[in-house]
Amino acid sequence: MGEEIRKVEAAGADVIHFDVMDGHFVPNLSIGIPVLESLRKITRLPLDAHLMIERPERYLEAFVKAGADSISVHAEVCADLPAIAAQMRKLGVRAAVAVNPETPLDRTLAAAGDFDMILVMSVHPGFGGQGFIPETLDKVRLLRADLDRRGLALDVEIDGGIKLDNIDRAVAAGANVFVSGSGIFGHPDYAATIAAMRARIAAA
Q1: For a designed S-S bond to 37, which of 19, 48, 66, 76 qualifies (C-beta 3.0 to 4.6 A apart)?
Q2: Coil, helix or strand for 173?
Q3: What separation, in Å, do the N-terminal and C-terminal C-alpha atoms of the chain show?
Q4: Contact call for residues 56 and 79 (beta carbons, < 8 A)
């Protein structure tokens, strides 16, 4: 994993997105705090921890101490979004809230002013390599329009199935942070793939 991160860093990636799954909120179980801590030692890139877990408030401090620069928690498991945003900001980390494809935006939009970023899932969380759900672009458009109307300069991140053939549509919908797993790691030349993605973003 360390070797792959060094490769994508050299290839021009801006951020390392770090998925955490607990086997409860999502069916699968994945890497956690000790791995993030080890990765912090080998890259200068920001580490964006995406917590697909229940009770994320219990683990925020540990993830920050391990080296996370930004943390995304899921609206589906957080009853009080402003409170968890305040907890993250107090810890000195960028605060983000994530929403699944089927989750309405109402609560997230109501709390948008408390966050630095909103993450729209364009696949169902918990499994890598899924196909992009095009209908989630409507959610991105609605989100960006609402933020612009209110003068809120939040980042809008999109995660799931983002590849060369759809990143321009995500840009046009209003996203400005793009998570790509197999869309980059599935190609032999990471630098060429990232450069091609940047060209599509610039042209969108």
Answers
A1: 66
A2: helix
A3: 32
A4: no
pLDDT higher than threshold 80 for residue 27: no
As for how many domains the chain has, the answer is 1
Token pair recorded at residue 48: 């964006």
List the structure tokens of 150. Answer: 């209110």
For 113-149, letters b (16+ CB in 10 Å) and e give: ebbbbbbbbbbebbeeeeebbeebbebbeebbeebee
Q: For position 86, which CATH number holds?
A: 3.20.20.70
pLDDT tens, 124-149?
A: 987 766 789 999 999 999 999 999 99
Domain containing residue 23:
2-203
- Point out which residues pair with 117 in neighbouring strands: 96, 155
Query: Who contacts 138 (Cβ-Cβ below 8 Å, separation ≥6)?
Result: 173
Catalytic residues: 19, 159
